Amino acid sequence: MSPRPAQLVEAVLLVSPRPVAAEALRSATGLGAPELDSALDELRERYSPEKSGVVLREVAGGYQLATNPLCAGAVERFREEIRPAPLSGAAHEVLACALYLGPLTRAAISRVRGVNSDAVVRSLLERGLLAEVGTDRESPGSPALLTVTDSFLSAAGANSREDFPPLDSLVSDEELARVRERVAAAGEPEDTAGAAG
Amino acid sequence: MSPRPAQLVEAVLLVSPRPVAAEALRSATGLGAPELDSALDELRERYSPEKSGVVLREVAGGYQLATNPLCAGAVERFREEIRPAPLSGAAHEVLACALYLGPLTRAAISRVRGVNSDAVVRSLLERGLLAEVGTDRESPGSPALLTVTDSFLSAAGANSREDFPPLDSLVSDEELARVRERVAAAGEPEDTAGAAG
Amino acid sequence: MVEGSGGRSLSAFTVELEVYSGPYEWLLALIMKDELEIFEVPLRELVRTYLEMRNAPSANALERDTEFVGSASALVLLKSRTLLPAVEVDGDGGEEDPSTPEELAGRLTEYLKVRRAAEALRERLAENTGHYPSGHALAPRTGEQRVDPRRVEAAARKTFSRLTEPPVRHLGPITVTVQELADLIRASLRSGPLSYEELVRGMDRLRAAVAFSAALSLAQEGRVLLRQQEPLGPLTLEPVP
Question: What distances in angstroms separate CA A25 from CA A54, A155, B75, B80, C79, one per listed residue?
Fold first, then answer.
């Protein structure tokens, strides 16, 4: 008896903790693109969060079997682990810089945030959410350029960097106009009454 | 929305590489024995070898998700391969001795190289590049005779020993005569009498 | 005075102070960009305002508190620095201050966007926690050993040819001794330091080699000093003082 396409894909996904790209799935299973697509459709259904304790995720450019977050409590009890502490506000800001403005240097991150960010960057490198990708040859000392990693994309449930809302959509024009107004008003120290939202 | 019992069990089994005992499953999921039993029934059906590329195995230690043996080919192709470390210079010399002068004993190899070669020979035997083929009955203790294996030929991209350049194209007659003396000169390094072959 | 909400951490926290009224996070940004004098900001009042707002129940109270404490401590630090005599604070953020209002507005805008993006990320990461990957990773398999046939061939040449003694017929009989050259060196050093090149000028290779050997023996006996500034550089022989 020979296995069906979905069975082959399922078996390969079981043995990979990391997301597996479609091409790697094709080369391991020998399936053509249309067969793989329908196998993945079948598995999407089979491993939907409503039905299953294991879900099929499409993250970081690949496919991954992972536990359903509904079952996270049981998994954590089983592994006798506590959920890792959530990231600090500073860490989220640094990740946002790397995601939207990166690759960029530590100094550039610090400039955008207005505070030295080296310690936060170090801890994100250790957690594997940031990585160094090449160096900025234009700057003195050729500092490393930082960007977000596949682990970050996976943790954010994102397939790629394009999977996030554009930066410009996050602040409304109205808010931006108010920043300008405020900056203009700041030239006149007596005017501090400007209304804000 | 709270997860069904089978979902909880399924999630725990996904993260555990080893079989999980019923008791550990109960304590992680908080399920009672009858609930766990019916959850396992459901999963047995869901992960049956006919349907799924992932199967539920019941082994001595408990329950375990594993790949369906039908899918072993795809799993094996997916599996990462690490290249063994390249061979040392000494290993190449020993292989050259076995290829051109073999079958010959460990002692003969050491005599030709001028250094004890036992450790190198052992590692090449372990890697399957050398093999013992009979014994040298003329020598005291009937030591094993060594030669290169088919694995060696295939590792070198050769079909047979004839794919290597002949020995007399590599060294002069004079050199060759001395080499043969060494091979033949069991235990008598000073004995330079009678060139072999 | 204050509008608190259980939504996005501190973004909904607004303050009304004598020097500023508006969202808290803009206050921070303005201070950071030196647009508001930190010593004009009454920190105590700021904390009191926050505590009043905090009474409203909120789903992410702990997170919000943490963030407030973080930023408030930064303000305290900043204020205490401002009150000290001017010390050049040199950090990565120490780029020249924006000179025009447009530049300032540009930087504030960028920071505000990053802050919003950070909040969106926080939510997104929180929604996606609890996805634990499979524990069934396979150990990598050891691949086939590769053997380079050219290296085997080279090893054969090397191994099988080193049994032959190097030919010496071209070497003439040695007609000079170390002792003779040691005497020559000592005689030459009476008139001061001497370079090895000078010493062996006009000698054949054999004599030059024996002279080197003699110099080494004399140095070892402590009768000559050998100086060489860099490896393979000129070698100087000096009399021992």
Answer: 19, 22, 10, 13, 58
Number of Cβ atoms within 10 Å of the Cβ of B80 = 11
Of C76, C9, C13, C110, which Cα lies nearest the Cα of A87?
Answer: C9
Q: How many CB atoms lie within 10 A of CB A128?
A: 12
The values of phi and psi at residue A177, to 5°, are -60, -40
The predicted pLDDT at position C200 comes to 86
| Per-chain mean pLDDT for chain A | 89
Q: What is the pTM of this model?
A: 0.60
Q: Which long-range contacts (CB under 8 A, 24 or more apart) does A115-124 make?
A: A115/A90, A115/C32, A115/C74, A115/C91, A115/C93, A116/C91, A116/C92, A116/C93, A117/A90, A117/A93, A117/C92, A118/C92, A120/A88, A120/A90, A120/A91, A120/A94, A121/A94, A121/A146, A123/A91, A124/A91, A124/A94, A124/A95
Of the partner residues C132, C143, C152, the one whose CB lies closest to the CB of residue B92: C152
With H, G, I as helix, E, B as strand and everything else as coil, classify residue C57.
Answer: coil
CB contact under 8 A, B11 and A65: no
Task: Identify which of C18, C128, C136 has the shortest CB distance to residue A155.
Answer: C128
Residue that is written with structure tokens 């099929």 in the block: A56
Residue C86 has a pLDDT of: 40
Cβ distance A24 to B70 less than 8 Å, yes or no, reads no
Residues whose CB is less than 8 angstroms from the CB of residue B148 and which lie 6 or more positions away in sequence, other chains included? B95, B98, B99, B102, B129, B130, B131, B161
Q: What is the mean pLDDT of residues B34-63?
A: 94
Residue A38: count other Cβ atoms within 10 Å of its Cβ.
12
Count of residues making up chain B: 197
Structure tokens at B143: 């030591």
pLDDT in tens, B53-110: 999 999 887 999 999 999 999 999 998 878 788 889 999 999 999 999 989 999 999 9
If DSSP codes are grouped into helix, strand and coil, which group holds residue A145? strand
Closest CA to A169 of A100, A103, A104: A100
pLDDT digits (tens, 9 = 90+) for C50-96: 887 777 666 777 777 877 887 777 777 766 665 554 433 444 444 45
Dihedral sign computed on CA atoms, order C215, C216, C217, C222:
positive
* C-alpha span between A10 and A24 (Å, rounded): 13
Task: Tell me the C-alpha distance between C216 and B103, whole Å.
Answer: 49
User: Does residue B131 sit in helix, strand or coil?
Assistant: strand
- List of chain C residues whose C-beta atoms are within 8 Å of the C-beta of residue A168: 113
**Top-confidence residue, B80 or B12:** B12
User: Given an 8 Å threshold on Cβ–Cβ distance, is B95 in contact with C147?
Assistant: yes
Q: Do B74 and A24 touch (CB under 8 A)?
A: no
Report in angstroms the alpha-carbon separations of C92 from C19, C96, C119, C142. Answer: 29, 11, 24, 47
Instruction: Specify the amino acid at residue C131.
Output: H
Identify the three-state secondary structure at position C169. coil
ipTM exceeding 0.90, yes/no? no
Token pair recorded at residue C137: 């990773």
